[in-house]
Amino acid sequence: MTSPRPRGTLGGMSDIPPPIAEFVAATNAADSDRFVAVFTDDAFLRDWGREFHGHDGIRAWDRSDNIGKRSRFELHGVEPGEAPDEYRVDVTVSGDGYNGRDTITMVLAGDRIRQVLIG
User: Fold this and answer.
1) Domain spans in the chain, listed from the N-terminal domain onward
2) How far apart are the C-alpha atoms of 114 and 106, rounded to whole Å?
3) How many CB atoms are closer than 10 A to CB 117?
4) 50-53 and 72-80: which strand pairing?
5) Ordered strands of the 39-47 beta sheet
6) Do 45 and 51 meet the contact criterion of CB atoms below 8 Å apart?
């Protein structure tokens, strides 16, 4: 990734994992290419039962449910999950689609996101 990743402190963590910070920052910047780039090639995203695979699937979800709906994320906290490299991300979403607070589960693979589970 060529763009810098924001870092900070939330939810008791001294650092927000860079891929999670980038997920939020790319969405809030409405930068679809930057958003897709934070995912592994074999990424998986499940959004309330709908499944999306790989960069093409992530781009389709981004277009239909995220940046395509002018979504913005307000990050409230990031906590380690039950499995290694798993995190629970507490966000409020606003835009022209879903609006409200939710917890998103993310599984990282190095400096990328391998899995996102919503709902």
Assistant:
1) 18-118
2) 8
3) 17
4) unpaired
5) 50-53, 39-47, 112-118, 100-109, 86-94, 72-80
6) yes
Q: Which two tokens stand for residue 5?
A: 């990743």
- Encoded tokens for 61: 């979800």
Rounded to an integer, the average pLDDT of 74-99 is: 97
- Give the separation between CA 78 and CA 26, rounded to whole angstroms: 17
* Token duo for residue 48: 């309330």
53: its two tokens: 């695979």
Which CATH architecture does the domain made up of 18-118 adopt? Roll (3.10)
Query: Tens digit of pLDDT for each residue in 30-55?
Result: 999 999 999 999 999 999 999 999 99
For residue 89 the two structure tokens come to: 């991300």
Token output for 69: 């709906």
